[in-house]
Amino acid sequence: MGASRIRDPSKPGIVSRGGGSATPCHPDGLAFREQGTIELAEIKTTNKAWRTIPRNYLRQVWWQQYVLGAERTLMVWERHENFVPVGDPECRWVDRDETEIERLVKLASQLIDELIARTS
Question: Alpha carbon of 44 to those of 1, 3, 54, 79: distances in Å?
Fold first, then answer.
């Protein structure tokens, strides 16, 4: 937390950490709470019932929390059949996980280093 967040006017809704174009994110919802914390929302549709939030979506949520310094994210999903909603939307709070965020940042740094090495 504490790193500056930059909005690129050419990409509405996309935010980067510290001005680096390698750290964009695009949450579906953003709330600034009175106590100074940030909460996010991420909304998905699916054609399958979820017992738990799929790992790829958790990684997206943790990355958004890293970029924006958010403490938690409300993940909302709605099941559809043939593009028609089935039942009520479901939701769960996903708390910030520093261990998972650290793993993602390390992987992103390794990827960026590899891309630079291959294109230099």
Answer: 26, 28, 11, 9
Gap between the Cα atoms of 86 and 2, Å rounded? 41
The Cα 30–Cα 41 span in angstroms is 6
Left, alpha or beta for 19 (phi > 0: left; psi -120 to 50: alpha)? left
CATH class of 28-119: alpha beta
pLDDT tens, residue by residue, 37-77 = 999 999 999 999 999 999 999 999 999 999 999 999 999 99
Q: φ, ψ for residue 84 (rounded to 5)?
A: -115, 125
Q: How high is the pLDDT of residue 32? A: 93
Backbone angles phi, psi at 78, to 5 degrees: -135, 130
CB of 72 closer than 8 Å to CB of 91: no
What are the residue ranges spanned by the domains of the chain? 28-119
Containing H/E element for 118? helix 98-119
